[in-house]
Amino acid sequence: MDLEAIDYFIKVADARSLSNAAKLHRLPKSTLSHKIRQLEDRLGIALFVREGRDMFLTDAGAEFLDHAYRIQASCDGAEAAIAAMRQEIAGTLTIGSTGEFGTSFTSELLFAFRQRFPQVKIDVIFLSSGYLFAPERQQAFDGIFYWGEPSNVDYIAKRLTGASFGLYASPDYIEKHGRPQSPAELHDHRGIAFRIPTGLQSWHLKNGEETIDVLPPASCVANDYWMIKYFAVAGEGLAYLPDFFTEIECATGHLEPVMPHWRSPEVSVNLLYPRRRYVSRKFAAFQSFCIDFYKQRAEHYVPRYCVEVVSTPPRRAQ
User: Fold this and answer.
1) So which domain of life are we looking at (predicted)?
2) Could you report the per-residue pLDDT of 251-272, keeping only the tens digit for each?
3) pTM of this structure
């Protein structure tokens, strides 16, 4: 049986559409479609019901998906077993992550891991938490980066680090509008608000025993933290962002902490993995590396994302 076709079948089943699978894995849509048709022809049965752009598993498809996961895991286990005989850590790790800070938070860790274990291939998929923990995806990921404490008891959580939110603004904004010194002054400033499913995210801040929830008038609203940071660097207002997400911009002088003693309670960042008896050597190495990485992060030189100073291009001569 064509192992590549099985791999493509899993990708399409997880994404629930050819278009989504093609975008997630940077594969030609036509190749995915061709492989699925070949697999269905070989098995003599339809694996998907196609409704517009969406693809839903048939009963046969759902049954085959369970076997496909085991086939994939068995092949990967065989590769890892041979590598173990050579005292190598190898194979493919499929890592899930929610998208809020995945690019900036997980990229440097995964890059550093690849420098240490170049024989391990990384397949990273960013999805909402609802998709990550859907029952049909429980075997799809070796591990998941997750903010907060998971409610799903089918996963073990290993705490990697913690992060808290604070207020940040550009020097240009502070020069024009002043620097607030107390929570009462925040209402006189413009905010850049993050949209959550239930509305706008309030700024939950704590200083000692005193806590506040505030949200000044918003000049910009977005459900993407990179855009929030971009507008903050551009001088559009105050932004409520995690410390690690702004460290480079603060170091380069593009952002400054505002009311630094007022911060949100710390949120744990965890590595989740399914409860299972067997843990592969590659994932055991990955888990150990992740835990140690944030204890000694300064010792790892890795490229880091940042928003450069936002400047207005010069006008063309008339």
Assistant:
1) Bacteria
2) 999 999 999 999 999 988 889 8
3) 0.67
